[in-house]
Amino acid sequence: MSTPPDNAGPGFPGRAGRQRPSDPFRTYRPRLIVGLGIGAALALLVGAAAAAAERPLAPLEWLGFGTALSLFCAAPWVVLRTGAVLVSVGLLLAGGVLSVFVPAYFAGGLEAPQVVWLLVIPLLCPLYFGSRATLIAGLLSLSAFAVLYGFEVSGRLPPPAVEPSEFSTFVNLSIAAVFVMVVSISTHRAIHRSHGSLLGLQRDLEVRSDALAESESRKSAIIDSAVTGLISADADDRIVECNPAACELLGYESDEVVGRTVSELMVPDGMRQAQAAAFHAALSRQATAVFSQPRELVALRKDGSQLPVEVTLQPVKGGGEAVFMAQLRDLSPQRDAEALARRREQQLQQAQKLEGVGRLAGGVAHDFNNLLTVIGGYSENIEGDPEASESVREQAGEITRAAERAATITRQMLAFSRGQNLDVGSADLRELLSNFESTIRSLVPAGIDLAFELADSAWPVRANETELERSLMNLVTNAVHAMPDGGRIEIATEYLEEESLRLHPSLDPGRFALLRVTDDGIGMTPEIRERAFEPFFTTKAIGEGTGLGLASVYGVVHQCGGHVELVSAPEQGTRVEIYLPISDEGQSRVVAVPEVPAPTLPTNFVLLVDDESGIRNLVSRRLRREGYRVVEAADAQEALALIAPQADDLALVISDVVMPNGSGPGLAASLRKERPDLPVIFMSGFAGGDVPDLMQDFQGAVFLAKPLRMDSLMDVVGRFLKPAPLPNAGEPVESPR
After folding, report:
1. Does the reported pTM lie above 0.85?
2. Which burial class, exposed, middle or buried, applies to 562 when counting CB atoms under 10 A from its CB (0-12, 13-18, 19+)?
3. What digits encode the pLDDT tens for the residues 440-475?
4. CA distance 239 to 642
5. What is the distance between the alpha carbons of residues 64 and 101, in angstroms, rounded to a whole number?
6. How many whole angstroms separate alpha carbon 401 and alpha carbon 287?
7. Of 706, 687, 704, which is closest to residue 420 (Cα–Cα)?
8. Nearest of 374, 378, 385, 448 to residue 407 by alpha carbon
C-alpha cells in the first residue's frame, strides 16, 4: 500500500502526528472502505435484480444503478492505490445516496421506504469516518431531500410503477435497524478495546511522567548545586531562569533577575544598545562566533559594584522558541591572583635590587668601620695622653665624637645590609609601645595629633627592642616632616593568622604581628616610593637627613624575619606596615661576654691578627702600653707561622673575622686543637648574621663589632688576662722567621 498523502484530513491515516489517540477505527479504515465498497456493490446488484424481476426498470433507473455500482467499485480501488481515505469515503457516500435517491424517485419521493437510508448513512459516518465524511453525507442527504421535495411540489415525480406496500417499508426499516444494531455492537467493542488501550497508554504516560519529573528534579538539583552561575534566556535576551550560584554572584534574588535582559546585567550603560544590536544580528544569522567563545564582561551587582566575569553562551536545542544558556564565572579570584603575582614579582625585583645595594653598603661599612677604628682609637689615645695639651685633647674629643656619629651611620648601613650583629629575641610588642609612648610623643610637635590603636592580644614577636624602638622613632620623625601644616599620626597593631601568603614571597607561612604607622601628610610619588628604602636616598634638603632612616628600618625588620610594606600616594598620606613573625622563644638570644676564670699560665702573651695595618698598629700600641706582649700578623697563615715556636706561651688571640689567606675562625680552630680552652676575641666590621653561629662554635669566645673603642677592648682583654709586665713588654716580639 502506498504512503498516505499529506493532504489527508484529520482523523485519517494521511496526517501522521495529527491523529486523535481516541479514534479506534483509524487503523482499520482502508479495510473497512474495501469491505463496504464490495458489500454495497453486491447489495446493489441483488437489489437491481429483484427490482427488475418485479417490474421493468426505466432507463434512468438503470443509469442510476450503474453509476452507483461504479462508485462502489471505485472506492476500494482508490484507497488501495492512493491511500486517499476521504476521497474513497466520498465515492462510497455518493454511490450510497445515488442508490437510495433513484429508487425513491420512482417509488413516491419522500414517502418511499428507501428514504430511511438517507438518515442512516449520516448517522454512521461520525463513528467510522470522522466529521468531514459526516458533513459530506449530511449535505448529500439534504440535497437528495430537497430535490425529491422539489419534484413532489412541482408535480414532476413519476407515478409509482408499483404501489408501495407495507412489507417493503417493513423490510427497509428492519434492515436499517439490523444494520444500525450491528454497527453499534461493533462500535461498542471497538470503543471497549480502545478504552483498554487508552488505560495502558495512561499508565505508560504516568510512568513516563514520574520519570520525567524525577529527571527534571535531578536536573534542577544539579543546576542549583552548580558552582558556576547559569542563566537561561530567550531570543530577546530576557532571563527566564537563574540558578542560586548566579543569583549569589550578582547579589539578587531569583525573582529579581527573571524578566531582565542579560545585557542589562552584564554590559555597562554606554555599550548596552550596541551590544544588544550585535547579539540580535548574530542570532538572526545563526552565527556560531557569538556562542561557545568565552567573553570577558563586567557584571553589575545589585549594590552597584562591578564584577569581572567570563560569560559563555550556549544555544539550547529544542522545540519552540529559541533559548540560550549563559555560563558565568567570577574572574575576581583570578584577577586577585594576577595582581598578587605582579605584586610579588615587583617585591622580588625590589628585594633583589635592595640586596645588591645592601651588599655594596655592607662592603663600604666594613672598610669604613676599619677606618673609624683607627680614627677613633688614635683620638682616644690623644685624649688619654697626659702629655698632650688641653687644646689638643679637646680637638681629639671632637674627633672621637665625630667618629661615634659616623659609627652610627655605619650601623644603619649594616642594618640595611643585614650585616649588623643584631640580637634578635622575643619582645612583647604591646608592652614595648606602651613603655615607649612618652618618648614618641616627645618627638611630635603640638600641631600634630598622635593616636595609638593597640590590639588587646599580647603575642611575643621576634625583634630587637632597641632597634625596633629606633626604627619607630625614624618612622615617626619622617611622618612629622611630611606634615609641615599639622595632621594626624596613628600607630596601630594587629595580629594576623596565616597572612604571609599576601606578603613578600620570601616569608614563610605563619602568624605575624602587624605594626602600622600611618600619617596624612604629603605622601610620595610612585618614583619616590620605589626608591624609599635605598640607602642615602632622601628628598630632604642637604644636611637635613642621611637617607638611612627607612633603609635601616628595612634592614632591622628583615633581620627579624619580617617584612616592610610602604603604601603612599601624593596628597593621600603614607602608611608603613611592619610585619614581625610571632616568636616561640622564651627569651632573647644575647651574645654576652662570658665569665672566664683567672688565667692559669703565667703569661700575658697576645696574638693580634688583622689585615688592616692601621688597626694592628693601633691595637698593638695600646696592648703594649697596658703591659702585654704582642705578636702581630696580617693573615691566618702568617699568624700560624709566627706563633708555632711559642704556641705554649700564648694566652689570648685577637683576630679579625674576614681576612685574605684564611679566616679568623679557621685560625682559632687550628689553635684550639692543641689548646681547647684558648681565649679568643673576634673583631669585624661586617660579619653579617654569622655571629650567633660563630659564638656557638667557639664556646667562651667574644665578638666585638668595629669600630672599636680601645677602652672597651682593654676591658674585655682584662677579663681574660691580668697584665703583669715582663722584661721588654713594650717591645714587639720578633718574628722567628
Report:
1. no
2. buried
3. 888 888 888 888 888 877 778 888 787 788 888 888
4. 94
5. 9
6. 84
7. 687
8. 374
